């Protein structure tokens, strides 16, 4: 569970790994501490074995570093390094650390372990390959960066999650991950995400909405879930250090999965639609929900691959374009909870300041369709609630969303700028 902004990316990656290892279970399925331990071990093993030759990752011992608090949470840490020859041996070493990893500060310990296992200099080299400079966690609100996400997903702290490199050619370095990533950045930049991220081995996805990470998955029928679970178990048990305990645990889990398969009811038919489960761990919207995508014939089919080279489709922003959808009107959500097409929405429009910052984008060519521009609308009445566009447009850095509740002054209570040139109005 997430208590506040910041660790959502790390938690989403851990949850996605756990869901993939359990073979995309139904939302009602319970996860044990052993399941969580196996997920954390798999992430650490990827960090340890990222540079091992292809096909030999499970046959060459790698150093893994674990971290724990020396005293109080947030104080000095103590590290322990050991030679591991597979995820199962890492999971065995994690057992005594699980109470600390499950409590406050546990996400920080996992991040320490991943960075130290990969190696600080190796992480810096990874980041530099895509012209990044860090940090992996950005202040002042400790937000998870792309490099940290790729370290968790693929064992390398690369900042580029797109399908193309700086030269416009498709990337070939992408390490496979058991789960995928979908991001609104693809819509905003026009650059497709890397093919392996959009078509992972199992239908589990970390969702990046710009300022928040969640996790979604397609619950699989029992037969497919059983097969995926067996593959994950025996992949974890490979390696000379897995030992009898790991093999016994794998056998017990296979037996349990077999019983589940025999007792499972047939999956509901959803012709022309795909049902996904969505977990959002951040209050106040924390909850497990179901999403139904209509007009989809096969939700398990791989996504169409990105073209061999990048074709630009994102052009320099114009004042009045939709920068983002802020939220639906609360009264509409309350009266029409499932009819999102009937809701009114608060929109953030591109301001002059935002357009001037978009200097890296190419100008829109004359033959490209013009953007849809919306009028700003009249200013709010005196004392009426309003939202500061200047604060909202910098929300990813400050986590301030610029809300000025009624009775509101004519100047923003956060940044002090006058209302008239910077307000957002319209739904």
Q: Can you give me a brief rundown of this structure?
A:
This protein is of the alpha+beta class. It contains 15 helices and 14 strands. A hairpin with a 7-residue loop joins strand 1 and strand 2.
Assign a percent range to the helix content.
25-40%
User: Unreliable stretches, pLDDT < 50, 5 or more residues?
Assistant: 239-244, 422-427
The overall pLDDT, averaged over residues, is 85
Apparent shape:
globular
Widest sheet, order of strands: 5-6-7-8-9
Question: Whole-Å distance between the termini?
Answer: 32 Å
Q: What structural class do you assign from the helix and strand content?
A: alpha+beta
Rg calc? 23 Å
What's the main sheet like? Answer: 5 strands, mixed
Number of DSSP strand runs: 14
